[in-house]
Write a structure and sequence with these properties.
single chain, alpha/beta, Aspartate Aminotransferase, domain 1, Aspartate Aminotransferase, domain 2, seven-stranded mixed beta sheet, four-stranded mixed beta sheet, about 40% helix, about 15% strand, binds pyridoxal-5'-phosphate
Length: about 425
Protein backbone atom coordinates (compact mmCIF):
# COMPACT_ATOMS: atom_id res chain seq x y z
CA UNK A 1 0.00 0.00 0.00
CA UNK A 2 1.38 3.44 -0.88
CA UNK A 3 2.24 5.84 1.93
CA UNK A 4 -0.63 8.20 0.93
CA UNK A 5 -3.09 5.29 0.83
CA UNK A 6 -1.89 4.02 4.19
CA UNK A 7 -2.35 7.46 5.78
CA UNK A 8 -5.78 7.71 4.22
CA UNK A 9 -6.71 4.35 5.75
CA UNK A 10 -5.46 5.50 9.18
CA UNK A 11 -7.23 8.83 8.74
CA UNK A 12 -10.53 7.11 7.95
CA UNK A 13 -10.21 5.00 11.08
CA UNK A 14 -9.08 7.79 13.43
CA UNK A 15 -10.48 11.13 12.24
CA UNK A 16 -14.09 12.31 12.16
CA UNK A 17 -15.72 11.93 8.75
CA UNK A 18 -17.07 15.50 8.79
CA UNK A 19 -13.66 17.02 8.10
CA UNK A 20 -13.58 17.02 4.29
CA UNK A 21 -10.46 16.85 2.10
CA UNK A 22 -9.60 18.49 -1.18
CA UNK A 23 -7.15 15.64 -1.84
CA UNK A 24 -5.87 12.36 -0.40
CA UNK A 25 -2.23 13.34 -0.78
CA UNK A 26 -0.49 13.91 2.52
CA UNK A 27 1.90 16.83 2.95
CA UNK A 28 5.52 16.24 3.92
CA UNK A 29 7.29 19.57 3.26
CA UNK A 30 6.82 22.83 1.41
CA UNK A 31 8.71 25.89 0.18
CA UNK A 32 7.11 29.07 -1.12
CA UNK A 33 4.58 27.88 -3.71
CA UNK A 34 5.65 24.23 -3.96
CA UNK A 35 4.61 21.36 -1.72
CA UNK A 36 5.74 17.73 -1.63
CA UNK A 37 3.72 14.76 -0.45
CA UNK A 38 4.89 11.88 1.72
CA UNK A 39 5.84 9.90 -1.40
CA UNK A 40 8.12 12.68 -2.64
CA UNK A 41 5.75 13.98 -5.33
CA UNK A 42 5.94 17.70 -6.00
CA UNK A 43 2.88 19.92 -6.45
CA UNK A 44 2.51 23.57 -7.31
CA UNK A 45 0.29 25.08 -4.64
CA UNK A 46 -2.53 27.22 -6.03
CA UNK A 47 -4.49 26.80 -2.76
CA UNK A 48 -2.10 28.23 -0.17
CA UNK A 49 -3.86 26.29 2.58
CA UNK A 50 -7.09 28.13 1.61
CA UNK A 51 -5.73 31.63 1.24
CA UNK A 52 -3.40 31.51 4.24
CA UNK A 53 -0.09 31.71 2.41
CA UNK A 54 -0.02 35.03 0.57
CA UNK A 55 3.64 35.22 1.66
CA UNK A 56 4.28 31.59 0.69
CA UNK A 57 5.26 28.49 2.63
CA UNK A 58 8.03 29.13 5.16
CA UNK A 59 9.05 32.61 4.03
CA UNK A 60 12.58 33.03 5.49
CA UNK A 61 11.71 36.34 7.17
CA UNK A 62 8.55 34.91 8.72
CA UNK A 63 10.44 31.78 9.81
CA UNK A 64 13.13 33.92 11.44
CA UNK A 65 10.54 35.97 13.36
CA UNK A 66 8.82 32.76 14.52
CA UNK A 67 12.14 31.27 15.62
CA UNK A 68 13.10 34.42 17.54
CA UNK A 69 9.80 34.40 19.42
CA UNK A 70 10.05 30.62 20.05
CA UNK A 71 13.40 31.25 21.69
CA UNK A 72 11.88 33.93 23.95
CA UNK A 73 8.51 32.47 25.03
CA UNK A 74 5.66 30.64 23.32
CA UNK A 75 2.67 31.44 25.53
CA UNK A 76 1.81 33.54 28.54
CA UNK A 77 -1.83 34.41 27.64
CA UNK A 78 -2.37 38.09 26.84
CA UNK A 79 -4.89 38.27 29.68
CA UNK A 80 -2.38 36.95 32.22
CA UNK A 81 0.93 38.54 31.29
CA UNK A 82 0.63 40.71 28.20
CA UNK A 83 3.42 41.17 25.64
CA UNK A 84 4.69 43.63 23.06
CA UNK A 85 4.16 41.74 19.75
CA UNK A 86 0.36 41.84 20.33
CA UNK A 87 0.44 45.58 20.98
CA UNK A 88 2.77 46.30 18.06
CA UNK A 89 0.59 44.31 15.69
CA UNK A 90 -2.50 46.17 16.90
CA UNK A 91 -0.71 49.51 16.39
CA UNK A 92 0.32 48.59 12.87
CA UNK A 93 -3.10 47.29 11.83
CA UNK A 94 -4.90 50.24 13.43
CA UNK A 95 -2.71 52.58 11.38
CA UNK A 96 -3.15 50.65 8.12
CA UNK A 97 -6.74 49.40 8.15
CA UNK A 98 -9.32 51.42 6.19
CA UNK A 99 -11.29 52.47 9.28
CA UNK A 100 -12.53 56.05 9.69
CA UNK A 101 -10.86 57.79 12.65
CA UNK A 102 -9.05 56.14 15.54
CA UNK A 103 -8.97 52.32 15.48
CA UNK A 104 -8.36 49.54 17.99
CA UNK A 105 -7.81 45.79 17.54
CA UNK A 106 -8.50 42.48 19.24
CA UNK A 107 -6.77 39.21 18.38
CA UNK A 108 -8.20 35.70 18.44
CA UNK A 109 -7.21 32.46 16.72
CA UNK A 110 -9.60 31.67 13.85
CA UNK A 111 -11.69 33.49 11.28
CA UNK A 112 -14.91 32.16 12.77
CA UNK A 113 -13.88 33.45 16.18
CA UNK A 114 -13.15 36.86 14.65
CA UNK A 115 -16.65 36.96 13.16
CA UNK A 116 -18.23 35.87 16.47
CA UNK A 117 -16.39 38.65 18.26
CA UNK A 118 -17.29 41.27 15.66
CA UNK A 119 -20.97 40.45 16.23
CA UNK A 120 -20.51 40.56 20.03
CA UNK A 121 -18.82 43.96 19.77
CA UNK A 122 -21.52 45.30 17.42
CA UNK A 123 -24.26 44.11 19.79
CA UNK A 124 -22.52 45.60 22.82
CA UNK A 125 -22.08 48.95 21.05
CA UNK A 126 -25.57 49.26 19.57
CA UNK A 127 -27.50 47.39 22.25
CA UNK A 128 -29.36 45.68 19.39
CA UNK A 129 -29.68 41.98 18.53
CA UNK A 130 -30.21 41.76 14.75
CA UNK A 131 -27.60 40.90 12.14
CA UNK A 132 -28.08 40.85 8.37
CA UNK A 133 -25.79 38.73 6.20
CA UNK A 134 -25.87 37.70 2.53
CA UNK A 135 -26.56 34.69 0.35
CA UNK A 136 -23.43 32.84 -0.69
CA UNK A 137 -21.45 34.31 2.20
CA UNK A 138 -19.20 32.10 4.31
CA UNK A 139 -18.18 33.20 7.79
CA UNK A 140 -16.96 30.03 9.52
CA UNK A 141 -18.12 26.92 11.32
CA UNK A 142 -19.00 28.07 14.85
CA UNK A 143 -22.69 28.56 15.60
CA UNK A 144 -23.06 32.32 14.99
CA UNK A 145 -20.67 32.19 12.02
CA UNK A 146 -22.73 29.33 10.59
CA UNK A 147 -25.95 31.24 11.19
CA UNK A 148 -24.47 34.10 9.14
CA UNK A 149 -23.23 31.76 6.40
CA UNK A 150 -25.47 31.89 3.36
CA UNK A 151 -24.91 28.39 1.98
CA UNK A 152 -26.63 25.36 3.50
CA UNK A 153 -24.78 22.36 2.02
CA UNK A 154 -22.38 21.21 3.30
CA UNK A 155 -21.87 23.67 6.15
CA UNK A 156 -25.21 23.95 7.98
CA UNK A 157 -26.80 20.54 7.47
CA UNK A 158 -27.76 18.88 10.75
CA UNK A 159 -26.39 21.61 13.02
CA UNK A 160 -29.39 23.83 13.78
CA UNK A 161 -31.01 25.55 15.52
CA UNK A 162 -28.70 28.49 14.97
CA UNK A 163 -28.65 31.72 17.02
CA UNK A 164 -31.73 33.83 16.43
CA UNK A 165 -32.01 37.34 14.93
CA UNK A 166 -29.87 36.53 11.87
CA UNK A 167 -31.38 37.43 8.50
CA UNK A 168 -30.20 37.10 4.92
CA UNK A 169 -30.52 39.25 1.83
CA UNK A 170 -29.27 38.29 -1.61
CA UNK A 171 -25.70 39.23 -2.53
CA UNK A 172 -25.73 41.14 -5.83
CA UNK A 173 -24.41 39.02 -8.69
CA UNK A 174 -25.33 40.32 -12.13
CA UNK A 175 -24.18 37.14 -13.91
CA UNK A 176 -26.84 35.29 -11.90
CA UNK A 177 -29.45 37.97 -12.50
CA UNK A 178 -29.33 39.57 -9.04
CA UNK A 179 -28.82 43.31 -9.37
CA UNK A 180 -27.93 45.82 -6.68
CA UNK A 181 -31.58 46.94 -6.62
CA UNK A 182 -32.73 43.35 -6.01
CA UNK A 183 -30.39 43.00 -3.04
CA UNK A 184 -31.50 46.36 -1.64
CA UNK A 185 -35.14 45.33 -2.15
CA UNK A 186 -34.44 42.25 -0.03
CA UNK A 187 -33.18 44.46 2.78
CA UNK A 188 -36.23 46.71 2.54
CA UNK A 189 -38.42 43.58 2.72
CA UNK A 190 -36.54 42.40 5.83
CA UNK A 191 -37.11 45.81 7.38
CA UNK A 192 -40.80 45.59 6.51
CA UNK A 193 -41.55 41.95 7.30
CA UNK A 194 -38.95 40.60 9.72
CA UNK A 195 -37.00 43.14 11.76
CA UNK A 196 -37.20 46.91 12.09
CA UNK A 197 -33.91 48.72 11.35
CA UNK A 198 -33.79 50.04 14.93
CA UNK A 199 -33.21 46.44 16.11
CA UNK A 200 -30.40 45.71 13.65
CA UNK A 201 -26.85 45.86 15.06
CA UNK A 202 -24.90 45.15 11.88
CA UNK A 203 -24.60 44.06 8.29
CA UNK A 204 -21.89 41.42 7.83
CA UNK A 205 -20.52 41.24 4.30
CA UNK A 206 -17.46 39.95 2.47
CA UNK A 207 -16.32 42.65 0.01
CA UNK A 208 -15.21 39.74 -2.17
CA UNK A 209 -16.98 36.52 -1.29
CA UNK A 210 -14.48 33.72 -0.68
CA UNK A 211 -16.13 30.32 -0.48
CA UNK A 212 -19.07 31.92 -2.33
CA UNK A 213 -17.02 32.08 -5.52
CA UNK A 214 -14.95 35.31 -5.48
CA UNK A 215 -17.99 37.41 -6.34
CA UNK A 216 -17.09 41.08 -5.90
CA UNK A 217 -19.52 43.41 -4.12
CA UNK A 218 -20.39 46.27 -6.51
CA UNK A 219 -19.17 49.65 -5.15
CA UNK A 220 -22.67 51.13 -5.39
CA UNK A 221 -23.96 48.30 -3.19
CA UNK A 222 -21.46 48.94 -0.42
CA UNK A 223 -22.24 52.67 -0.74
CA UNK A 224 -25.95 51.91 -0.32
CA UNK A 225 -25.27 49.67 2.69
CA UNK A 226 -23.18 52.44 4.27
CA UNK A 227 -26.03 54.90 3.69
CA UNK A 228 -28.50 52.51 5.36
CA UNK A 229 -26.06 52.09 8.26
CA UNK A 230 -25.74 55.86 8.68
CA UNK A 231 -29.49 56.39 8.43
CA UNK A 232 -30.40 53.71 10.98
CA UNK A 233 -27.40 53.54 13.33
CA UNK A 234 -26.38 50.11 12.02
CA UNK A 235 -22.72 49.00 11.89
CA UNK A 236 -21.00 47.73 8.75
CA UNK A 237 -18.79 44.68 9.36
CA UNK A 238 -16.48 43.73 6.48
CA UNK A 239 -15.35 40.11 6.68
CA UNK A 240 -11.88 40.23 5.11
CA UNK A 241 -10.74 36.84 6.36
CA UNK A 242 -10.11 35.60 2.81
CA UNK A 243 -9.82 38.88 0.85
CA UNK A 244 -7.25 40.48 3.15
CA UNK A 245 -3.52 40.87 3.34
CA UNK A 246 -2.54 41.90 -0.18
CA UNK A 247 -4.56 39.23 -2.01
CA UNK A 248 -6.62 41.76 -4.00
CA UNK A 249 -3.74 44.16 -4.67
CA UNK A 250 -4.49 46.20 -1.53
CA UNK A 251 -3.76 45.27 2.07
CA UNK A 252 -7.55 45.17 2.62
CA UNK A 253 -10.08 44.66 -0.17
CA UNK A 254 -12.14 47.47 1.41
CA UNK A 255 -9.45 49.88 0.15
CA UNK A 256 -10.88 49.35 -3.34
CA UNK A 257 -14.07 51.06 -2.13
CA UNK A 258 -14.88 54.61 -1.15
CA UNK A 259 -16.85 53.53 1.92
CA UNK A 260 -15.49 52.57 5.31
CA UNK A 261 -16.55 49.63 7.48
CA UNK A 262 -16.92 50.10 11.24
CA UNK A 263 -15.35 46.71 11.95
CA UNK A 264 -13.11 44.46 9.83
CA UNK A 265 -12.46 40.79 10.56
CA UNK A 266 -9.09 39.35 9.57
CA UNK A 267 -7.46 35.89 9.69
CA UNK A 268 -5.80 33.47 7.24
CA UNK A 269 -2.80 35.20 5.56
CA UNK A 270 -2.29 37.64 8.44
CA UNK A 271 -0.43 34.91 10.37
CA UNK A 272 1.74 33.55 7.55
CA UNK A 273 0.52 30.02 8.37
CA UNK A 274 0.09 30.33 12.14
CA UNK A 275 -3.42 30.51 13.63
CA UNK A 276 -4.14 34.19 14.11
CA UNK A 277 -7.26 36.26 13.53
CA UNK A 278 -8.64 39.54 14.71
CA UNK A 279 -11.14 42.35 14.65
CA UNK A 280 -10.04 45.87 13.79
CA UNK A 281 -12.55 48.65 14.25
CA UNK A 282 -13.50 52.14 15.26
CA UNK A 283 -12.00 52.66 18.72
CA UNK A 284 -15.26 53.76 20.27
CA UNK A 285 -17.05 50.65 18.95
CA UNK A 286 -14.23 48.28 19.91
CA UNK A 287 -14.29 49.61 23.47
CA UNK A 288 -18.02 48.91 23.98
CA UNK A 289 -17.74 45.43 25.58
CA UNK A 290 -17.01 45.21 29.30
CA UNK A 291 -13.55 44.36 30.58
CA UNK A 292 -13.33 40.56 30.48
CA UNK A 293 -15.98 40.31 27.75
CA UNK A 294 -13.41 39.70 25.03
CA UNK A 295 -10.35 37.49 24.77
CA UNK A 296 -9.51 33.80 25.01
CA UNK A 297 -6.67 31.62 26.23
CA UNK A 298 -4.75 31.54 22.96
CA UNK A 299 -5.99 34.72 21.24
CA UNK A 300 -3.10 36.72 19.77
CA UNK A 301 -0.50 34.08 20.61
CA UNK A 302 2.95 35.76 20.72
CA UNK A 303 4.50 33.48 18.07
CA UNK A 304 1.58 34.16 15.72
CA UNK A 305 1.80 37.93 16.36
CA UNK A 306 5.55 37.85 15.62
CA UNK A 307 4.80 36.00 12.37
CA UNK A 308 2.14 38.58 11.45
CA UNK A 309 4.54 41.49 12.00
CA UNK A 310 6.99 39.76 9.64
CA UNK A 311 4.19 39.15 7.10
CA UNK A 312 3.46 42.89 7.02
CA UNK A 313 7.16 43.62 6.45
CA UNK A 314 7.37 41.06 3.63
CA UNK A 315 4.29 42.58 1.96
CA UNK A 316 6.04 45.98 2.02
CA UNK A 317 9.60 44.85 1.21
CA UNK A 318 8.56 42.67 -1.71
CA UNK A 319 5.81 45.04 -2.91
CA UNK A 320 3.28 42.23 -2.85
CA UNK A 321 0.43 44.65 -3.55
CA UNK A 322 1.79 45.34 -7.04
CA UNK A 323 2.73 41.68 -7.40
CA UNK A 324 -0.87 40.64 -6.59
CA UNK A 325 -2.16 42.89 -9.36
CA UNK A 326 0.34 41.42 -11.86
CA UNK A 327 -0.46 37.83 -10.85
CA UNK A 328 -4.17 38.58 -11.21
CA UNK A 329 -3.61 39.98 -14.72
CA UNK A 330 -1.64 36.89 -15.73
CA UNK A 331 -4.25 34.46 -14.39
CA UNK A 332 -7.09 36.44 -15.96
CA UNK A 333 -5.30 36.56 -19.34
CA UNK A 334 -4.79 32.77 -19.37
CA UNK A 335 -8.34 31.99 -18.22
CA UNK A 336 -9.66 34.54 -20.75
CA UNK A 337 -7.87 32.62 -23.53
CA UNK A 338 -9.36 29.35 -22.31
CA UNK A 339 -12.79 30.98 -22.18
CA UNK A 340 -12.62 31.57 -25.92
CA UNK A 341 -12.60 27.78 -26.47
CA UNK A 342 -16.35 27.03 -26.08
CA UNK A 343 -15.83 23.30 -25.51
CA UNK A 344 -13.99 24.10 -22.25
CA UNK A 345 -17.18 25.63 -20.84
CA UNK A 346 -15.72 28.54 -18.89
CA UNK A 347 -18.42 30.95 -17.72
CA UNK A 348 -17.82 34.01 -15.63
CA UNK A 349 -14.31 35.04 -14.59
CA UNK A 350 -14.45 37.07 -11.39
CA UNK A 351 -12.42 38.49 -8.56
CA UNK A 352 -10.10 41.34 -7.67
CA UNK A 353 -6.29 41.42 -8.01
CA UNK A 354 -4.90 37.94 -7.41
CA UNK A 355 -8.20 36.70 -5.96
CA UNK A 356 -9.44 35.17 -9.21
CA UNK A 357 -11.98 32.43 -9.82
CA UNK A 358 -13.66 31.11 -12.93
CA UNK A 359 -16.96 29.29 -13.17
CA UNK A 360 -17.40 26.11 -15.17
CA UNK A 361 -20.69 25.76 -17.00
CA UNK A 362 -22.10 22.91 -19.02
CA UNK A 363 -20.49 23.49 -22.46
CA UNK A 364 -22.99 24.96 -24.90
CA UNK A 365 -25.32 26.16 -22.11
CA UNK A 366 -25.84 29.82 -21.31
CA UNK A 367 -24.87 29.44 -17.69
CA UNK A 368 -25.73 26.01 -16.29
CA UNK A 369 -23.31 25.32 -13.41
CA UNK A 370 -21.07 22.28 -13.92
CA UNK A 371 -19.84 21.29 -10.43
CA UNK A 372 -18.78 17.82 -11.66
CA UNK A 373 -16.36 19.44 -14.09
CA UNK A 374 -14.90 21.63 -11.33
CA UNK A 375 -14.39 18.57 -9.13
CA UNK A 376 -12.90 16.60 -12.02
CA UNK A 377 -10.57 19.48 -12.89
CA UNK A 378 -9.24 19.73 -9.30
CA UNK A 379 -8.69 15.94 -9.24
CA UNK A 380 -6.99 15.87 -12.64
CA UNK A 381 -4.80 18.86 -11.78
CA UNK A 382 -3.64 17.09 -8.59
CA UNK A 383 -2.68 14.02 -10.65
CA UNK A 384 -0.68 16.36 -12.87
CA UNK A 385 1.04 18.13 -9.95
CA UNK A 386 -1.13 21.17 -9.19
CA UNK A 387 -3.26 21.77 -6.09
CA UNK A 388 -6.47 23.61 -7.03
CA UNK A 389 -9.54 24.45 -4.97
CA UNK A 390 -13.16 24.67 -5.99
CA UNK A 391 -15.62 27.22 -4.59
CA UNK A 392 -18.92 28.91 -5.39
CA UNK A 393 -22.54 28.73 -4.39
CA UNK A 394 -22.95 25.92 -6.93
CA UNK A 395 -19.46 24.47 -6.22
CA UNK A 396 -18.68 24.97 -9.91
CA UNK A 397 -15.89 27.54 -9.69
CA UNK A 398 -12.13 27.11 -9.50
CA UNK A 399 -10.24 29.65 -7.41
CA UNK A 400 -6.61 30.62 -7.58
CA UNK A 401 -4.97 31.48 -4.25
CA UNK A 402 -1.35 31.02 -5.25
CA UNK A 403 1.21 32.63 -2.91
CA UNK A 404 1.96 36.19 -4.04
CA UNK A 405 5.64 35.35 -3.65
CA UNK A 406 5.42 32.73 -6.44
CA UNK A 407 8.19 32.88 -9.04
CA UNK A 408 6.97 33.70 -12.59
CA UNK A 409 8.32 30.38 -13.88
CA UNK A 410 6.32 28.39 -11.34
CA UNK A 411 3.19 30.48 -11.83
CA UNK A 412 3.36 29.83 -15.58
CA UNK A 413 4.02 26.14 -15.00
CA UNK A 414 0.97 25.95 -12.72
CA UNK A 415 -1.23 27.83 -15.18
CA UNK A 416 -0.04 25.48 -17.93
CA UNK A 417 -1.03 22.44 -15.86
CA UNK A 418 -4.41 24.03 -15.11
CA UNK A 419 -5.07 24.54 -18.84
CA UNK A 420 -3.91 21.00 -19.76
CA UNK A 421 -6.00 19.48 -16.96
CA UNK A 422 -9.11 21.35 -18.12
CA UNK A 423 -8.56 20.25 -21.73
CA UNK A 424 -8.14 16.66 -20.49
CA UNK A 425 -11.37 16.87 -18.45
CA UNK A 426 -13.29 18.25 -21.42
CA UNK A 427 -11.82 15.85 -24.04
C1 LIG B 1 -14.67 35.17 4.63
C2 LIG B 1 -14.40 34.13 5.68
N1 LIG B 1 -14.79 34.35 6.93
C3 LIG B 1 -14.57 33.45 7.92
C4 LIG B 1 -13.94 32.25 7.65
C5 LIG B 1 -13.69 31.27 8.76
O1 LIG B 1 -12.33 31.22 9.06
P1 LIG B 1 -11.74 29.99 9.90
O2 LIG B 1 -11.82 28.79 9.03
O3 LIG B 1 -10.34 30.42 10.23
O4 LIG B 1 -12.59 29.86 11.12
C6 LIG B 1 -13.51 31.97 6.35
C7 LIG B 1 -12.83 30.70 6.03
O5 LIG B 1 -12.73 30.27 4.91
C8 LIG B 1 -13.75 32.94 5.33
O6 LIG B 1 -13.36 32.72 4.07
Amino acid sequence: MSRNADLQRRRDAAVARGVGHASQRYAARATNSEIWDVEGRRYIDFAGGIGVLNTGHRHPQVQAAIQKQLDAFVHSCFQVMPYEPYIELAEQLNARAPIAGAAKSLFVSTGAEAVENAVKIARAYTGRPGVIAFSGGFHGRTMMALALTGKVAPYKIGFGPFPAEVHHARFPHSWRGVGVDDALDDIERLFKHDIEPARVAAFVIEPVQGEGGFTVAPPEFLRALRALCDEHGILLIADEVQSGFARTGKLFAMEHYDVRADLITVAKSIGGGLPLAGVIGRAEVMDAPNVGGLGGTYGGNPVACAAALAVLQVIDNEDLLTRATRIGERVRALVGELQSEPRLGIGEIRGLGAMIAFALKVPGSVNTPDPDAAKALAARAAEMGLILLTCGVHSNAIRVLVPLTVEDKILDEGLGIMADALRAVRS
